[in-house]
Structure formats: C-alpha cells, structure tokens
Amino acid sequence: MIIDTHLHIVDQSALRYPWLSGAPALNRTFSYEEYAREAKRGGISQTLHMEVDVAPEDIEAEIDYVAAKAREPGSLLVGKIAAGRPENGDFAAYLEKVRANRFVKGLRRILHTLPDDLSEGATFRQNIKRLSGTGLTFDLCVFPHQHERAMALIDLAPDVQFVLDHCGVPDIKAGDIDAWRKSMAEIARRPNIIGKVSGVIAYADPDNWTVETLRPYVEHTIGVFGWDRVVWGSDWPVCTLGGGLSTWIAATQALVAGASAEERTKLFSGNAKRVWGLN
Questions:
Q1: Is the peptide bond prior to 237 cis by the omega test (within 30 degrees of 0)?
Q2: Which of 51, 100, 154, 236 has the most other CB atoms within 10 Å of its CB?
C-alpha cells in the first residue's frame, strides 16, 4: 500500500491558476483521471490532494471540487490539504469553516515563491497560533535559505503538526548540499514536524539524474527525521518535470530497498494514516 500525501489536480476549465502562466511545462489540465490511471498501476491506494495555489477567490471552490471527485466511485481521494492565507485578517473565520469540513485534513500556504518576510508578519504569526487545537496540519514549502524562518513558525505552535514538503526543497541540480544538510538537521530536532519525501526529482537535472543522485537527499531526510516521522508524496504533476509518477515510485522503492518491511510501511502508508487519521 502506498498513500500519496501530495497530489495536485489542475483543471483549468474549473479553477484559475495565475502562477501557471509562468510555468509553461505545467500550463495545461492535469486531471484526476490521468493521475489515477497511473497511480493505481503503481500501487497507490489512497491520496491526499494538495492545494495548487489557485486564485484566492477559488480557494473554497477548489475544496468543493476535490470533495466531489472524492465522492466518485472508486476514487483514491481521502482528504485535502487546503490553501490558507494566514497573512489575511479574515483567516480566523476561514479556519472555522474548514475545521467543520472533515474532508479537510490540513492547510498550506506556499512560501518558497513569495517574499521571505511574509511569514514574519504579526497577522501571519498570530494566525499560525490559531491552528493549535484544531487537529489540522500545516505544510511548509520553503527553500533552504528560508529554513530558519520555517523553524520560527514551527516553534510558535508546538502542538501543531507541521509537514516539511519536498525534503526541504534542496537545489539538487546545483549540488548545493552542505547548508541544506545542516538546516534539515536543525528543523528535524523539533518534534512537531515531519518530513515529506517528495518532489526531489523536479529539482535534479531532468536529463541526467539517477537514483544515486537523489540518495544523499532522501537518506539524509529520513536519517534526521527518523522512520516514524516521514511520509511519501508524488508531487504529481510537478514530478513529470523529472520523469513522472511511475519513475518516482520506482526510484523511491530503490532508495529504501535496504530498509526493513516495517520501515518501508511507515514511510509509504503507516505514518500518513496516523498523522491524518486515515482508515
């Protein structure tokens, strides 16, 4: 069993994605049906949808859209990590609304493509604290130079479960590993964050990476967080930039081939079940 904790659905006929105009390789519809066909063949049995940074006025529409897909017969979708805007004054009201929706398992605010100081605003930080007691997770997608700011957020709400996306977004193509290794170890010392093994094939040279290219990054992530605090995600369709879903599944299986069956189960499904309360 594999639980995919990081699927993006892109339906340009239903929702607006302003950022896609600057990402031509991804600027098309990537449907749930296209994903599910390949995912089922690769052993994925359940999926969490990750928000796709839709236009702000479409945030709630994206929740409804994905929930409708989840109700279709045989759907892999079991929950959603919804978009959130902690920098906004109306976040508290929005939070109460999503708390009442059992399909929503967590929130994310994209940070790695935004000004570094966004997360340092007083409103943003106060709203992160509001997550305490909600049971919702909060995903952090940050570049290595933003890791220190991420740690500050994690420390603000010690009883909130944070999730670090994409192995902390290392610059694999440039081979800039030393600073990333150090800050990843610092982040992992905080007990209220888990690491997500996802996304890394999109940060490597798309034409030349191998399993050994990825190994230092995946093994260090698992090493600093430990097998009880890592989950797996596809980052589809972004993973198509580095080879695709099936390639990433195969690469991950090869990277953890030396682990025990119990350890592999924790990474691929067990920890996700515990963190998000999945059946």
A1: yes
A2: 236
Determine the pLDDT at residue 17: 98
Residues 20, 118, 81: CA angle, nearest 5 degrees:
55
CA distance 241 to 26: 8
Number of domains in the chain: 1
Q: What is the pLDDT of residue 15?
A: 98
Model-wide pTM > 0.85: yes
Res. 113: pLDDT tops 90 = no
Tell me the two tokens of residue 215.
Answer: 């190994």
E-assigned strand segments in 90-153: 104-108, 137-140
- Provide the Cα torsion 66, 142, 189, 201; round to 10°: 80
Specify the CATH number for the domain of residue 178. 3.20.20.140
Return the bridge partners of 196, or none: 231
State the residue range of the domain holding 159.
2-276
Beta carbons within 10 angstroms of residue 189's beta carbon:
11
Question: What token pair was written down for 92?
Answer: 């508290």
